[in-house]
Known about the structure:
Low-confidence stretches: none
Order of helices and strands: HHHHHHHHHEHHEEHEHEHHHEHEHH
Oligomer: single chain
Radius of gyration: 26 Å
Number of strands: 7
Number of domains: 3
CATH class of the largest domain: Mainly Alpha
Structural class: alpha+beta
Distance between the termini: 87 Å
CATH superfamily of the largest domain: Malonyl-CoA decarboxylase, oligemerization domain
Strand order of the largest sheet: 1-2-3-4-5
CATH architecture of the largest domain: Up-down Bundle
Amino acid sequence: xxxxxxxxxxxxxxxxxxxxxxxxxxxxxxxxxxxxxxxxxxxxxxxxxxxxxxxxxxxxxxxxxxxxxxxxxxxxxxxxxxxxxxxxxxxxxxxxxxxxxxxxxxxxxxxxxxxxxxxxxxxxxxxxxxxxxxxxxxxxxxxxxxxxxxxxxxxxxxxxxxxxxxxxxxxxxxxxxxxxxxxxxxxxxxxxxxxxxxxxxxxxxxxxxxxxxxxxxxxxxxxxxxxxxxxxxxxxxxxxxxxxxxxxxxxxxxxxxxxxxxxxxxxxxxxxxxxxxxxxxxxxxxxxxxxxxxxxxxxxxxxxxxxxxxxxxxxxxxxxxxxxxxxxxxxxxxxxxxxxxxxxxxxxxxxxxxxxxxxxxxxxxxxxxxxxxxxxxxxxxxxxxxxxxxxxxxxxxxxxxxxxxxxxxxxxxxx
Length: 415
């Protein structure tokens, strides 16, 4: 199209949008959504989608709840149609009967989300929409199907193939650095000086996953310390007065903090890919690195101890109790009770060592009496460990951790 043609097209497009916006003002959000789901042109679709998103941004809690109820109930699939199209496909399995079944099996609210997403910047707004949904869904379980649909769409939209791994350094844009401070979920960053000490020295690294539609919003990030040997204390690792080392002299990469940033993406897994990608990149760039470990909290230890059957003689042995908890405390499905353990063991790590008084912060003492754990990522055994964990929930652990766990006594019947 010539420049003049593009200019004329743009002028008419803007005039049409103004006319359409005047019509939009007099209609309900539900009506706009149903119109958006109909057969309309691209310009109309973008204008309607933007109007719906703008309206949602200005809604109060009750209005958002009403919108969620509309999406859940008014845009639900038709079970009878699903059954009928399935029977038709079963009788005559071909392209047409399958298409009819696939269309009947997808509720309209999924298509509404897709059409809303055609607006520039809408992906982040939809993530925030799910965040709002998650804040009310505990008291409104009937909205559960809507969350299933959001999670289904986000699992595709935020597939690993779309994510970009970016280093985050002291020279990164200020808006990114501000978000690192705000989103840090494991070891609070108290000030800009504190952040600088975690990013600027040669023996510190930080990496985050970003999505092209949300380029200034980290989805998840990991903080890494490059050390000589495996650390046994977060206080020492983050001490202001510590002496940094040259990255080339380090033999160990320590993943000491992993923070998910977007509540609206809860349940969408990024961490396993992040750690493996960062470990691979660090191994490539720093050949001196031979060990990849975490220094991780044990958030469920004290809660478990409060209701466990541990014998009184074993209480007070923090390292042994932590080892026993990590290896033996299970959920009903047989997986480890501790959420951090489930994450790392599911990624193919092993329980390497536990350390008493490794985190003497208020939160560390509250969670686990200050005990922390190293999960070891042996790059040659990650796949093997992962398969063992997935197939039969095997918790791979070092001999020293197993020995500590075995020393813990449980109460005998009748005691």
